[in-house]
Design brief:
Elements (H helix, E strand, L loop, with lengths): L3 H24 L11 H8 L3 H14 L2 E3 L5 E3 L4 H24 L3 H13 L8 H17 L4 H9 L1 H10 L4 H4 L2 H12 L3 H25 L1
Antiparallel strand pairs: 1-2
Helix pairs in contact: 1-3, 2-3, 4-6, 4-11, 5-6, 5-10, 10-11
């Protein structure tokens, strides 16, 4: 049996571990928007090669968590207030489509049950911000998945890195926007099969979040 496939798998595993570690450090706030991400320092900290770190950072660029600054130096991405507002406008359009599709689906009642379960992961208080971010985004991703449109899900996921950046820019502002009671009306409207109300609630939710995070971004 050739050992070459095992060597290839090992390199892939290292790359994935490096990617997960750097992503987790950004999402948790260990690295803040604007912080420089040096290949040498990261490689030393993670115990991997600079090439492995470079591949991980390239992937994080594609996710929108990392951006190239002056002279190609990589930094944790940051968003202007205008970009934050644009981001949430696109989210409103995507998730508005999602709720309309769910309501029109014969699987609406089952979808409501799934969303009620996702709601239970949201809390109205607490200081575990990474967990709250994850629960919030998981709810909205589930909303898109339940629409049954793979292109919708893909479009939403392409924005996820920037969503996290926007939220991390405004850590002190995120508590009210991630509470369970801010999300429950979306599920209630879907359960009642009221498409107009569901879309309006989603749009208002996103507009409110946009203003919170845009203001936080401006003052960061």
């Amino acid at each position: 049996m050739s050992v070459e496939p095992l060597a290839s798998l090992d390199r892939s595993t290292l790359r994935e571990r490096a990617l997960e570690s750097v992503r987790a450090a950004i999402i948790s706030g260990q690295y803040r928007p604007g912080d420089h991400l040096g290949e040498v320092e990261l490689a030393s900290s993670l115990g991997v090669s600079r090439g492995t770190v470079r591949e991980a950072l390239r992937h994080l660029q594609q996710e929108g968590l990392v951006t190239a600054g002056n002279r190609g130096m990589l930094r944790v991405n940051s968003l202007t207030p205008g970009e934050v507002r644009e981001l949430f406008q696109v989210r409103a359009a995507l998730e508005g489509l999602a709720v309309r599709e769910i309501i029109a689906s014969p699987r609406r009642e089952a979808a409501v049950g799934v969303l009620r379960t996702a709601l239970e992961q949201l809390t109205d208080e607490g200081e575990d911000f990474p967990a709250r971010i994850q629960a919030d985004l998981a709810f909205h991703l589930q909303l898109c998945r339940l629409a049954g449109n793979s292109m919708l899900v893909e479009a939403w996921q392409r924005l996820e890195g920037r969503m996290r950046v926007a939220i991390l820019n405004g850590a002190a502002w995120q508590v009210p926007m991630m509470a369970r009671d801010r999300h429950a009306p979306i599920v209630d409207a879907i359960e009642q099969a009221d498409a107009a109300a569901a879309v309006q609630i989603v749009e208002e939710h996103m507009a409110s979040a946009a203003e919170h995070f845009a203001q936080a971004s401006q003052s960061a």
